[in-house]
Amino acid sequence: MDSRASVFDVEAAAERLRGKPGALLGLLEEIQDSDPARYLSEENLKRAAAALAVPPSQVWSVATFYGFFNLQPQGRRTITVCRGTACHTRGSLGLLKDAASLLGCEGYDPNSEGAFTTADREYTIRTVACFGQCALAPVVMIDDEIYSRMTPGRLVAVLSGAKKRGAKKAAHVPRRRYEGEAAPSVEGARR
Ligand code: FES
Fold first, then answer.
1. How far is the CA of 87 from the centre of ligand 1 (A)?
2. Mean pLDDT, to the nearest integer, of 151-178?
3. Helix (H) or strand (E) holding 80
4. Is the pLDDT of residue 45 over 80?
5. 81 CB less than 6 Å from ligand 1?
6. Phi, psi dihedrals of residue 186, rounded to the nearest 5°
7. Which atom of ligand 1 is nearest to the CA of 138?
8. Mean pLDDT over each residue of the chain, to the nearest integer
9. Is the CB of 125 under 6 A from ligand 1?
10. Mean pLDDT of 14-26
11. Short-list 75, 78, 13, 3, CA closest to 44
12. Which of 133, 149, 150, 185 should be mutated for ligand 1, with most atoms under 8 A from CB?
């Protein structure tokens, strides 16, 4: 078992949420937010289904529909590079390659749509279809912070600074999203 495994009480949370609108979505969000690796394990998906007495297929449908749910362990920090048309024409592929190289993502294919997490689970690098800020392309998000009109030099500076601060920085807490809010078109977002 992962030494950072979550000890979140799924059943207690389900009891609290049962009968409320969006109970399943809320439960999955709480599970993911509580997990040090910010993902929904197979075990926790099964527990959520049992705790809310809903079919596992329904839990899986929700978990795979919303792009902000992760089905694999995530790095402590997340770098998301927009690969939409506007950002692409302004050099986002180069930024993605630079980020992957700087963060030691050996084996990552920048042309793939999949996310990649470093072996030490320090960084996850991923792409998004559009941040909705095309006029500010190219756009990169580091954790929850958006950087517009990103340049290779600035990206290196920001990531280098982030790496230096990495050991001191508290664990990243993902922004919560709620039912009805548009899910970002993140790669692997099961669109
Ligand atoms: S294409 Fe990158 S923000 Fe829209």
1. 5
2. 65
3. strand 77-82
4. yes
5. no
6. -70, 145
7. 2
8. 84
9. no
10. 95
11. 13
12. 133
